[in-house]
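Backbones bend. We report:
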Amino acid sequence: MFTPILRAIGQLDDPAILRILVQALLVSVLCFAGLVAGSAALVHHWLAGHGTLADIASALGGALGLISALWLFLPLAVVIAGLFLGQVCAAVERRWYPDLPPPAGAGFAEQIWDGLIIGLQVLGLSLLSLVVALIPGPGFILAYLITAWALGKAMFRSVALRRMGRREAVARYRDQRLAVLAQGAALTLVSAVPLLNFLVPIIGPAAMVHLVVANFRKDESWG
């Protein structure tokens, strides 16, 4: 069940992946720094001028900003993953599946449009999960499952669209939804750890390549 994510992590020493990782890290660090600063400023702004709440905002604004940024980094991770998707997938396929034919999936415009829709969906669900996490009791678990589902689905569909149209990508996702959820759950855990979260835009697509290829090889159809 977790073989794809373990293979993705195991390939981080691949020179081709390392080159992409350095580029993705630079983009991720800049985006994350902006999120932390923006989230902290918003928290302070919302609570400022309310007596005791203003003091709390000053004391905890940075910490709450960091927590919010960690949660909201996931939609950005999907966008960043899209920037390096082709390179990551090509590196994984060269190492594990050198016999594959060249990708011939959805058109460029369709991939861009679908990527935009997926990014907005992940953003909406990330915000929803952030609110759900505040519910006493099962709130945090529900928030975790929502995030894992959204992240896994987004990464899988983005990778699948390299080799098939949108309709077939959706069908393939339904065939492997539990395996996709498992990868999403693992990626969500990684994303919650500072510094390790910068790996998500790389290991996410890398893991999903293995699921997409496994699905195709069931019926030897390449879309």
